[in-house]
Amino acid sequence: MRKLFGRRSLSALLPLALACSIGAGLPPQPAAARTGAPVSAAHAAAGGGKHTGPPPLAQSTTAETGHIGKGRSKVSELPPLAAGTGAFRKKKTAAAAAACDVDDFTSRSGSALVKLIQASTTDCVNTLFNVTGDDAYKAFREAQMTTVAYALRDGSASYPGDSSTGMPQLVLYLRAGYYVHWHHPDTVGTYGTALRTAIRSGLDAFFASPHSRDITDANGETLAEAVTLIDSAEENARYLSIVKRLLADYDSSWNASPWMLNAVNNVYTVTFRGHQLPEFLTAVEADPSVLDSLYGFASSHLALLGTDQSYLTSNAGRELARFLQHSTLRTQVRPLAVRLLKQSAITGTTAPLWVGMAEMTDSYDKANCSSYDTCDLQSRLASAVLTVTYPCGSGITVKAQQMTSGELSSSCTSLRDQGAYFHNVVRDSGPVANDHNSTIEVVVFDSSTDYRTYAGAMYGIDTNNGGMYLEGDPAADGNQPRFIAYEAEWLRPDFRIWNLNHEYTHYLDGRFDMAGDFNAGVTTPTVWWIEGFAEYVSYSYRGVPYPEAMTEAGRDTYALSTLFDTTYSDDTTRIYQWGYLAARYMIENHRADVDTVLGHYRSGDWQAARTYLTSTVGTRYDNDWHRWLAGCAAGDCGGAAVDECTGGDTRELGRNCRRSDQSATTGNHAYLYLYVPAGTTRLRISTSGGTGDADLYYSDQGWPSTTSYTRRATGAGNSHTLTISNPPAGAHYISLYAVSGFSGATVSTSY
User: Fold this and answer.
1) Quick one: 651 exposed, middle or buried, by C-beta within 10 A (0-12, 13-18, 19+)?
2) Strand ranges across the sheet with 440-445
C-alpha cells in the first residue's frame, strides 16, 4: 500500500475518517500530494529509549486515515477537488523552495534561530520536515527544540491572533522537529525532560492566550497546528481539556473558516492516536468526561450530516466508539454508542455516523453486536447499499449502489472491449501459473462520499483514494478478486466511473503479467509498471489525452533509470504521471525490453527483471528519454495519432492522424470531418492543447452544433475525448465550438 500524506493542513475534502482498527501505532505521514494510506508499525527505538506512542504526523493534520487492504491492493488517485475545497494554503513554489536554505537554520541557535523562524514563510519551514543527517541534528537537537518551545511560550503572552509575530512558523518548526526525530532518533539525539518541560510551557501558554479562541482563519492557522503539536509531542493525555474545549466551542460560525474547521477536526487526531499512549488511557479512565464531549458533539450536530462539515459529526461518533477497545471503559461507552446509532441509519444522510460507529463496534465489541444492532455488519451493508447486481459476461459482474441499465451496459462494454486491447499490448500467452482469478467483481458506489462512507467498513480498505483493486491470493480456491470504484459525481450529468479502466487493468495485469499476489510483486520496485501501465492502458484505450503527464514531461524531472526505482512511498506525481510516461516510452520505443521484463514478471523472477532494468537497460536510454520528453511536452510523444493528416482538404481527418492549429472566435466553430470504413469497431476523437476554451461536438448525420449533435464532450479547456463504438461506415462530422476564443488546438482521430 502507498503511505502518502500531505504535509500541511488540508480542507474538509480529506476529513479525518480514522477507520483504522488494527496495529500498534500509526507511522509518520511523509510528504505527498493528495492521498494517504495507513499502515500498522511497531514503535521504533529512539535515542533516549523506546517511544511509547505513535510517531508524529508530518505536515498534513487532516489526512483521512482508513483500513489496510489485504492482498494485491492497488489504489488510484483522488478525483479533482470540489469547488471551494482543497488546500487553502498556497502550494510551495519552486522559487519559494529555492529561497529557503536549511543552512540558515542549522547555523543558528538561541534568539537568532527564533528570529529566523519567525521571519520565514510556512512554506520554507515545511521543507525542514525532509532534513536528514547532520542537518537533522543541527536543526532539531533537544537544545534547539527547547529554545523554540520557550519562544512559543513567550510569544503566546502577546499573541495577536494572527501570523504577524511568526507563531504558525514556531509551531510548525516544533512539529517538524518531532517528525524528524522520530525517523532519525540516533542522529537527532535524545529528547528528554528539558524539552518536555519546555513544550508543555509553550502549549500551556498558547492555549491560555485569549486570542487562541478567536474564530478567524488568522488564528485558526496557528490553532490547528498547535492541536496537532499536542500529538507530535505525545502530550495527548495532558491536553484532553483542549479536546473538550474545542468540541464545546464549535458552532456554525466556524464554518466560514477552513483553518478553524481544521482545528476542531484535529482534536480527533489527539484522541485517535492517544490510544497508543498508556498515560492517555489512564487519564480518560480517571476522567471519562471526554466521552461525554464526543457524544455531545455528535448528538448536537446531527444537522451537519449531509453537509460539507459532515465529517465533524461522523468523526466524533467514530472516535467515541473507538474507546470500546478498552474493557475498562466499555460500560461508559456502550450506552452512548447505542444512543447515537439509534439517531442515525445505515443509509441516507446520517449513514456516515452510523457506519463509522458500527465499524468500531464490529472491531472492538463484536460479541455484543446485538446491543448495537450491528451484527453481520458486512452482509448488512452489502444488502442495504449494493442493490444492483449485473452480469457483464466474460467473467465480469458489476455490483452497484445505483446505475441505470444504459450505464451498466456502456460500462460493461468498455470493460469487455478493454480485454482485447490489453492482450494486444502485453502479448501474453494466457494467465500466469497458479492464477485462478477467472472472474472479477466490480463494485461501484454512487459517489465518492458513498465510497468513503461504506467501502472501508465493507472491504477493510483505505478510502482516501480514487479506487482500489484487491487481488487476494490468486492461487487460493474460492478467492474473489474485486475492485472498488465510484461514480464521478462532479462530472454529472455525464456518467463516468472514476478510474474504471485503470482498476480493470490492475486485474488483467495481475492475472496475465504478475506472478503470485501483490506482496510478491512488490518485493522489488515494480511500481513504474504496476501503476504506470494501468495509467497507460486507461488513457490509450480510451483515446484520452493526459495533460498532467504532458506537463510533467515538460519539467523533465526524472531520468528513466531513476523511475525504475519508484515505490509506493514516492509521491503520486512520480507514481502516476511519471509512471505513465515511463511505461509509454518503453512500450512504444523499446518493445523488446518490455517483453523481456514481462517474461520475468510472469515467471515471478523479480530479481531478474530488476537486474535487467538496472543493468542491461540501466542508463542506456536516458539521453533519448530526455529528448522524447521534450517532444511529449510539445504534443508529440510518438505512437499513434501524432502525424499530421495528409489529405488535401485541411478539414479532413483520417486514421491515426491529427490536424493542428485549430482556432475559432467566441461563439463560432471550427469544422472537420473524416470517412470511416465498414467494420470499424471503435472511433476515438480527441482534442488537446492550445489556449482558450473549445467544446467538442460530433455527428454522423451532418455538421454538429451546440443544439444538434450525436455526442459531445464539454468542460473547461480544450482536452476532450469521445469514443464511438461501432460507428457506421461513411462520413463523420466534428466541430469545435468556441465557448471562448481558442487557438492552437489539436484534433486527432484513431480507429
Assistant:
1) middle
2) 73-75, 468-470, 482-486, 440-445, 396-400, 388-393
User: How many residues can be counted in the chain?
Assistant: 751
CB 225 within 8 A of CB 9: yes
Cα separation, 605 vs 72, in Å, equals 17
Question: 727 or 21, which is more confident?
Answer: 727
Buried b (16+ CB within 10 A) or exposed e, 612-625: bbeeebeeebeeeb
Helix residue ranges per DSSP H, 442-499: 448-459
* Residue 637 confidence (pLDDT): 73
Letter string b/e over residues 126-165, b meaning 16 or more CB atoms within 10 A of that residue's CB: bbbbbbeeebbbbbbbbebbbbbbbbbbebbeebebbbeb
How far is the C-alpha of 672 from the C-alpha of 703, rounded, in Å?
A: 9
> How many Å apart are CA 716 and CA 699, to the nearest integer?
21
Q: How far apart are CA 713 and CA 707, in angstroms?
A: 13
Q: Is 384 helix (H, G, I), strand (E, B) or coil?
A: helix
β-pairing, 657-664 with 711-713? unpaired
Interatomic CA distance for residues 231 and 266, integer angstroms: 10
What's the pLDDT score for residue 15? Answer: 33
Spatial CB neighbours of 325, under 8 Å, sequence gap ≥ 6: 21, 275, 363, 364
**DSSP readout, 114-153?**
HHHHHHS-HHHHHGGGG--HHHHHHHHSHHHHHHHHHHHH
Residues 6+ apart with CB under 8 A from 587: 425, 533, 536, 594
The strand ranges marked E within 324-445 are 388-393, 396-400, 440-445
42-52 pLDDT per residue, tens: 222 222 323 33
Query: CA-CA distance, 76 to 297, in Å (whole number)?
Result: 33
H or E segment at 750?
strand 730-750
Q: Among 366, 367, 338, 365, which Cα is nearest to 354's? A: 338
Cell representation of residue 316: 466524533
Cα 648-652-654 angle, rounded to 5 deg: 105
* pLDDT tens per residue across span 160-171: 999 999 999 999
Instruction: Show the cell assigned to 17.
Output: 475518517
CA–CA dist 377, 355 (Å, integer) = 9
Question: Is the separation of the CB atoms in 659 and 715 below 8 Å?
Answer: no
User: Helix 193-208 to helix 142-156 angle, to the nearest 10 degrees?
Assistant: 20
pTM of the model: 0.73
Which cell numbers in the block locate residue 683? 472511433
Q: Which CATH class is domain 657-750?
A: mainly beta
* CA dihedral (520, 523, 529, 535) positive or negative: positive
- Please tell me the CATH superfamily of domain 389-633, with its number: Collagenase ColT, N-terminal domain (3.40.30.160)
